[in-house]
Amino acid sequence: MGKKQSGSAEKKPGEKKGGNTKNADKSDQSEGKGKGGLKAATAVNVRHILCEKHSKATEALQKIQEGQRFDKVAQEYSEDKAKAGGSLGWMVRGSMVGAFQDAAFALTPSTVDKPMLSPLVKTNFGYHVIMVEGRR
Known about the structure:
This protein has helices at residues 2-33, 54-65, 70-77, 98-106, and strands at residues 43-51, 87-92, 121-123, 126-135. The chain has 136 residues and is of the alpha+beta class.
């Protein structure tokens, strides 16, 4: 019995640490799939306009700032396959290239008729104008 007690005494701290980690992981996963984190979003509903040339991306940005709808400008200017108003849908953290992801998660959700835009974001794909419609 002495061996069991010392063995269980050694396991208890380990179990607590392991148990807490497992519980924390489970709650993180359920939050990520369900409501999302309270402060940091795990996914964003993102739209973008992708242009190979800086001048074209700047022109698209100006059109939106003049009051045109984001989705209409995206259809006209974006060179991406996401021609449906620039919508990429829900994107999770880690599924986007670095600079694009940083800009997307930093944006406040807005609507296509009054978008909160990122400045031009340069990636290996070209120049992006990004807006976020939702966070979770």
